[in-house]
Write a structure and sequence with these properties.
By secondary structure, this protein is of the alpha+beta class. Bound molecules: D-MYO-inositol-1-phosphate (IPD) and calcium ion (3 copies).
Length: 271
C-alpha cells in the first residue's frame, strides 16, 4: 500500500507541476488552437493535451492504482482511495496569446477530501502549495490573506464562462458589482485568481460555472491562507458559485451577489 500522507502527495504533485510548467513554458511561443470544446472561444492547444499526458504519466508511474480526473483526458479510475484532479493549463486563452497569467493545477483528494494542492505559475517562477491543516505557501514562504476591508475598498477578481448566454447575465451581475467595489480584475485563470487572494494580491474572488479542476487545488490553498470559501446562503462552494474572501468581506460580497442571482444564468424571479 502506497503512502497517502498529504505531505507525501504534495511533494509528488509539486515536482510534477513544476516539470509540467516547464514543458508548457517551452511550448508557449507560436502555439495555436488545436480544437474547440463547448463554444468557438473554448479552445484547446496541443500543449493542454501534452501537459496533461505528462502529468498523468508521472503521477501514475509513481502511484499506480490512483484515480485521475483531468480537464482534457477525462477520468481514469483506480482503487487506492486517492484521486488526482488536474488542470494542465488553467488560463488557456492567456497561454494562447503569450500572456503570463496561466498555471498548472494539481490537487490530491483522499477518500473524497482534497488534502493537498499545488498551483505552479511558471511565468513568475512561483509555486503555491497547501496541505489540509498544514497552511499555505508560495515557493516555501507562508501565505496569509490581507485583512478584511469594506467592500467599497476591495479589489475583486472574477471570471466568465465560455457560453455567450451565460456571459450576457454575468455582465449584468458585474454592472451592479463594479460601482460597489474598489475595482475588478479579470485575470483569466481561476487558479491564479484564488492564489492572488491567498497571497494578498487581491481581496476577493467570485465566479459562476467553474469545473472541479479549475478550483480544487487553489481553493485549498486560499482556505489554508485564512480565506473563507463558500457559496450562497451558507452552502459550500459549487460550480454554481464560488466566493472567496476573508470573513467580514465575505459576508458583504455574499449579500451583494445573493439578490442578483449570481448563481444563476438569469435574474431571480420576483415574489
Ligand atoms: C478557465 C479559466 C478562466 C475562468 C474559466 C475557466 P481554462 O479555465 O480558469 O479564468 O474564467 O471559467 O474555464 O479553460 O483556461 O482551463
Ligand atoms: Ca481551467
Ligand atoms: Ca485548462
Ligand atoms: Ca479549458
Amino acid at each position: 500500500m502506497l503512502e497517502a500522507e498529504p505531505a507525501h502527495l504534495l511533494d509528488l504533485a509539486a515536482d510534477v507541476a513544476r516539470e509540467a510548467g516547464q514543458l508548457a513554458a517551452r511550448g508557449q511561443a507560436g502555439i495555436g488552437v488545436l480544437d474547440t470544446k463547448s463554444s468557438p472561444t473554448d479552445v484547446v492547444t496541443e500543449m493542454d493535451r501534452s501537459v496533461e499526458e505528462l502529468i498523468r504519466k508521472r503521477l501514475l508511474n509513481a502511484r499506480p492504482g490512483d484515480s485521475v480526473l483531468g480537464e482534457e483526458g477525462g477520468t481514469e479510475s483506480g482503487s487506492s482511495g486517492v484521486r488526482w484532479i488536474v488542470d494542465p493549463i488553467d488560463g488557456t486563452v492567456n497561454y494562447l496569446y503569450g500572456r503570463d497569467e496561466w498555471a498548472v493545477s494539481i490537487a490530491a483528494e483522499s477518500e473524497g477530501e482534497v488534502v493537498a494542492g499545488v498551483v505552479a505559475v511558471p511565468s513568475r517562477d512561483e509555486t503555491y502549495t497547501a496541505t489540509l491543516g498544514g497552511g499555505a505557501f508560495c515557493s516555501g514562504t507562508p501565505l496569509r490573506a490581507r485583512d478584511a476591508v469594506p467592500l467599497e475598498m476591495a479589489l475583486v477578481c472574477t471570471g466568465f464562462g465560455y457560453s455567450t448566454e451565460r456571459r450576457a447575465y454575468q455582465a449584468e451581475v458585474l454592472r451592479t458589482v463594479l460601482p460597489r467595489v474598489r475595482d475588478i480584475r479579470r485575470g483569466g485563470s481561476a487558479a491564479v485568481d484564488l492564489c492572488s487572494v491567498a497571497h494578498g494580491r487581491a481581496d476577493a474572488y467570485y465566479e459562476r460555472g467553474l469545473n472541479t479542476w479549475d478550483w480544487s487545488a487553489a481553493s485549498l490553498i486560499v482556505r489554508e491562507a485564512g480565506v473563507r470559501v463558500g457559496g450562497l446562503r451558507g452552502a459550500p462552494a459549487t460550480p454554481d458559485l464560488i466566493i472567496a474572501a476573508v470573513p467580514g468581506l465575505f459576508e458583504e460580497l455574499h449579500d451583494l451577489l445573493e439578490p442578483l442571482g449570481a448563481d444563476t444564468d438569469g435574474p431571480p424571479h420576483a415574489g
